[in-house]
Amino acid sequence: MGPRITVIGSINMDLMTKVGTVPQQGETVLGEDFTMVPGGKGANQAVAAAKLGGDVHFIGRVGNDLYGRQLMEHMHQQGVSIDNLEPVTGFPTGIAIVLLSEQDNRIIVVQGANQAVTPAVVEMHEKVIAESEIILLQLEIPLESVQKAAELAKKNNTKVILNPAPVHFLPETLLNYIDVLTPNKHEFDQLFTKTQKQSRKSQCVITKGKDGVVFTVNDEEKTIEGYKVPVVDTTGAGDTFNGALAVAISKGKSISKACTFANAAAALSVQKLGAQAGMPNMKAVQHFILSNRQKKGIKD
Description:
Its main location: cytoplasm. The chain has 300 residues and is an alpha/beta fold.
């Protein structure tokens, strides 16, 4: 195993419905398919990193219910350490209702037990954070818990990657703890004013879907082009990107090489149905990158 990656975040059961047309207010439409799959941004990113060979630990909470037991077993099967994933009473397991339509998705999240990942819970796990190369965070647990996790990471010289989704105002104190911020273009525009964009862009890796990834090195903006691939389901593509980015950075890759790797992993993920089911392994990503370089006549 390589350096440890600890994901602190949400875990949900995703209730996925495929529809030809998204219903308007007051309208009923017939769905084409329904399935339940493990999800939650935190869990998705943990599984993505584990599938790519990361030594991944997960800090989170589920309800003391059927979904919670199923999710814990699933995470264990995916190779994620669940020593710090615990059931709680008083909250049901979190769920996400996902509408799939026209090669895109709309998602409603009910936090449930993810609300129980409090600052006190995070503080209980300082040793896990201190022993990690990277912690990976999102915004589906309380913001004050994200802040506490980033603060403890900085105290212990652990790198912090924050995926600011769902988008939420981020205080300067939190931003100053973050090593890499991974908004998509929409989130980046919502998070920052024009002046803030200039001061924060060196911190950001901005994902743009089919248009690739934008990041800054030595004050120079760089773009990695997206891949033209057949899209089946975009659910979890951003989570795949974040998990892959964490793995690459934990292995000492430059931000450019890490983004190239994560961009390819995300491109592979959209070609299959389901967030975690579509996540690739290391061999698949390496083959995909190599074959695309060969197609373009690029030599290593």
